[in-house]
Amino acid sequence: MHPLVPIAAEDYGLHIRLAYATPDNFTGKPVYGPAAGCWLHAEAAPLLRKAAELARPLGLALRVLDAFRPSEAQWALWAHTPDPEFLADPRRGSTHSRGVAVDLDLLDAATGQALDMGTAFDAFTPLSHHAVIAIPAEAQRNRLLLLGLMNAAGWDFYANEWWHYQMHDAARYPLLSDSVLGAERMMG
After folding, report:
1. What is the pTM of this model?
2. Domains assigned to the chain
3. Does 122 belong to an annotated binding site?
4. Which of 4, 70, 96, 139 is geometrically suited to a Cys-Cys bond with 39, CB 3.0 to 4.6 A?
5. Which residues have CB under 8 Å from 111's CB, separation 6+?
6. Is 161 a catalytic residue?
């Protein structure tokens, strides 16, 4: 039995739009296959549920843009854009490939509209860093709101990406390939 559990939007009270299952990502093409699902390590899943619960009374919803990313996908992303400021070198391994990281943004729960975060997801620019003040004040507030929700739910953050959160001590979890999912594989 593998350590990953499926994350279903209705079970967690959040939205899921896996960017790498669509061409709407920095590579311009799908990285995951058409059967890709949202998965997290069994120890990370309750932290995501807690963050979604904290957002709900504020009229907000989390939208997951990426979660478990097989090592094979990390290699594909790195082959396209080997930028260590924004992508983990697959030789070291990504926290996504351990199933203990999630990329996400915030939505207005009533309208489903994304909140302004100052940059797009996966914008490989210094403006994507946390604590940037060269973005509109509303976007700064939204980033800090996401940071607060995720931190209160037990997540750590990556300073270069406002959208990336991971479990504390993430390196202790093993790297996982697509084969861990068996028939329910992420890669095409």
Report:
1. 0.96
2. 4-181 (3.30.1380.10)
3. no
4. 4
5. none
6. yes
